[in-house]
What we know:
By secondary structure, the chain is α/β, with parallel strands linked by helices. It has one domain (7-126). It has helices at 24-33, 52-62, 72-87; strands spanning 7-13, 36-43, 66-69, 105-107, 124-126. The strands form two sheets. It has a three-stranded parallel β-sheet, sandwiched between helices. It has a two-stranded antiparallel ribbon with strand order 4-5. Strand 1 (7-13), helix 1 and strand 2 form a beta-alpha-beta unit. The longest helix is centred in the middle third of the chain and has 16 residues, at 72-87. The chain starts with 6 loop residues before the first strand and ends with a strand.
Amino acid sequence: MTEAGRKALVIITDADDHGSKLRVEQAIEAAQRTDTVIHILLVHDPGYGWRPDVARKMTDETGGRTIEVSSEKRLNEAFDQISDELRSQYTLGYYPTNTDKDGRFRKVRVETTNKDYRILTRKGYYAPKS
């Protein structure tokens, strides 16, 4: 049995990796396969490395956001933003033209003509395997 709805992961990090056993691509794939959106609160600590490019890759590929935080106030604001977004999201569905059950990654792109709307969406999904 699977859980209904999407899962969200909020990570507070500088995104500078010091010992992961998996590559970033493998972490992204795991999130995509489990329909998990990743939000990263990116902390920059002067004197230490940080990797905004890695953070943005993870959030962009899973439909989340990267928010740079530099103070406790900004951290609280970022949590409020993410909380609001999670409560006010819509779910879209469609029937793919490719019905093969091959477990391969399928790209998806969602657009709007109204520039007042902001769209956060994952870049695709993994088809089921038969």
